[in-house]
Specification:
Strand content: under 5%
Largest sheet: none
Number of helices: 19
Helix content: 55-70%
Radius of gyration: 22 Å
Length: 504
Amino acid sequence: MWSSSVDGYRRLGAAGSVAVAAGGWAAGTLPARDPWGIWVPHGSAATVAAAVLAYAGLTLLVVAWWRYGRLIAEGARTGVRDTLVTLGWWAGPLLLAPPLYSADVYSYIAQGAMVLEGHDVYSAGPSVLDPQGIGADAAASVGGHWRDTPAPYGPVFLVLAQAVTWVTGGRIVPAVIGMRLIAVAAVVLIVWAVRHLARHGGRSEPGALWLAALNPLLLTHVVGGMHNDGLMAGLMLAGVVWAVRGRWLAGSALVGLAMMIKSPAALALLFIGVLVGRAADGPLVRRVAKGLFGPGLVAGAVAVVATVAGGTGFGWLGTQSVAGTIHTALSVTSDVGLALGELLRLLLGADPAPVKSAVQNLGLAAALALIGYLAWRAVRSRTEPVHALGLGLLALVALSPMVQPWYLLWGTVVIAATDRDGRAGRIVTVLCAALVYETQPSGHTPAYGFVLAGLAGLAGALLMRRGAAAFPPRAPVPGPRRERREPAAEGAAEPFSGPGPLSR
């Protein structure tokens, strides 16, 4: 039934996705209250059985994705249409499932209700909502520490959440489905942008879509969990597409909209500026000034207009660090800072909080230094600007004070179009296969989640070393249509053609 073919792995992944969705009906991130009685608890035994089913389905999906990628790399005649059909098979079962792997969607709906009720979403959390009002069920379902946390999102996303809440009356089931439709639109945007960026760089479109859109991390956390990171990434990538086509004004405007979803999209402006400076005419000073300030001014103007039009105010400027106050075990700088702080507390009786904060700030400074170095390489034509953007986003995530599994997608969707079969592509492939296991379908992060993620990462690394990964050496470009590749700039990411990076 599960033959070693594109159709076979498509069916295997679809079976896994169905199992994830079915398990989610009892073990997903169910609301605290559902007046319709659809997404309700079913008892502890049913919950455990459903969680096991969801984990088994997730494993089938990861295996199918991994093997599907190898078929693409080996030259199987898998075109863009085949890849999109597979995406439909794998994403479809998740569309009507309850929220999976995160309760963030309830925060989105509650924040939309706050805007409707006239609350300042940048000074209070969903706990201020009327217990009998339009967002009451969503607010009751928000995770504990987020109930009093101001929104860290931009006004464009809040307006979308407000629209969904208004149209659905804040009813949990239709409101969640409405937010999932926005997530699906984000996936469509990512698909469109990744295809164009891969084509621009002479890369395999099916291969790029495999890493960006078929990725189980995206399916579980953008389609299943409805995280707005997908919409941010989609708008950011669309802006980059327009910029590489020479239409940097439109590209910068789209990045401005992406910033009004989540602020990390602003990093794209730096590398769009490199493209602008390269293409500009006139004296060096003029070219540098245009590249440094042009994209930022356009995006800033869009941000101002969006903020004024949205009516939510400029409070988002002061809430960008609120997420960093919540400790996540995936943040290396937070973990190191916490450990050092506790050590100093035991030895000297010192307050550990300033130590943790200092280490987090050092991590951000190191990320900015790496991003600056990547920009310099892009200016000197040693790294292509789009590829440098992907690496910069990965550096930002790795050194941020708060890291969630789906943050890896920020850079992964870019790397998919620039270096899918190279060193960076291989590394994020292993990380994506591992991090899907870190979170329960219920949104909790148990200790065994890290164990499962570690085992999956180790298995992926071993497969890479043994040459059984999705990208064997010197694989031909698949698909019925081949395009002539332009010579890459010195230092630009090239298709992998040597021993695996994990064996070096």
